[in-house]
Amino acid sequence: MSDLELRIVNAVAAFFVAVLSGLGVGSGGLFVIWLTLMGVGATQARGMNLLFFVFSASAAFLFHLKNKRNIDLGLALYLASFALLGTVVGGYMGRLIEGDLLRRIFGGLLVLSGCYTLFGKKLGKKG
């Protein structure tokens, strides 16, 4: 595959992952998987995913805010503060955990998340 063809394929993949992100799907896992399948190292793929997420999530947030999509800004800011703390802790832990183990943990979490999505009960709903 030529360099141009590879760039086009990657651009199309990034577009569809961003569409999923805009829909609220946890698309970060998909992007990391795509990047690692394309030969990007796991550590670099996670870093690229974080940068990608900043732009796709910001665009989705602005779109939903513009269209008055029931965003509770107080709750969003409250949760974002804990997300910031978790990001700092996770970034530090990412330096301490060996890359192969981290990749396996990430894969396991994706499998568990997928199983819960398919077979788990909805949070906050009874019965």
Secondary structure elements and pairings:
Layout: H1 3-22, H2 28-37, H3 42-66, H4 73-96, H5 99-119
Short description:
With 127 residues, this protein is mainly alpha-helical. The chain has one domain. The chain has helices at 3-22, 28-37, 42-66, 73-96, 99-119.
The helix tally amounts to 5
**Per the principal axes of the C-alpha atoms, what is the gross shape?**
globular
Low-confidence stretches: none
Mean pLDDT across the residues is 80
Roughly what percent helix?
over 70%
Distance between the amino and carboxyl termini: 52 Å
Overall domain count: 1
Total beta-strand segments: 0
Summarize the helix and strand pattern as letters.
HHHHH
Largest sheet properties: none
Q: From the alpha-carbon coordinates, what is the Rg to the nearest angstrom?
A: 17 Å
Structural classification: mainly alpha
Strand residues, percent: under 5%
